[in-house]
Amino acid sequence: MPALLEDPARCRHAQPSRHLRALRRGPGVNDDDLRGAILARVAGLRAGTSLCPSQVARDLAEDWRPLMTPLRRVALEMAGQGRIAVTQKGRPAGPDPRGPIRLGRV
């Protein structure tokens, strides 16, 4: 384990970030878990509806916020493969969207 995670005093901030606390707890959710959860949630959507990625993250962990960055990355990969739709303001999201996105069926 990196020294930064073993000794929070070495961290630049007085309180380590949520992300570092999540890493310290151990291996958690991997990309395959994220893909499966996204597909399960999207499969349950009615036609023409979408969901916020945070709903998927909340299904996976009580402390869901650290999952948002990897979840967005995996969702964008899946959209590039044509497995799901990722939209922003009702239009297909680009490869690196900033701000809120929605997940839906293709």
Automatic annotation (TrEMBL):
Ranges of compositional bias, category Basic residues: 11-24
Domain of life per record: Bacteria
Residue ranges that the Swiss-Prot or TrEMBL entry lists as coiled coil: none
Region of interest called Disordered, as start-end residue ranges on this chain: 1-29, 83-106
Name this polypeptide is given: DUF3253 domain-containing protein
Classification of source organism: Bacteria, Pseudomonadati, Pseudomonadota, Alphaproteobacteria, Rhodobacterales
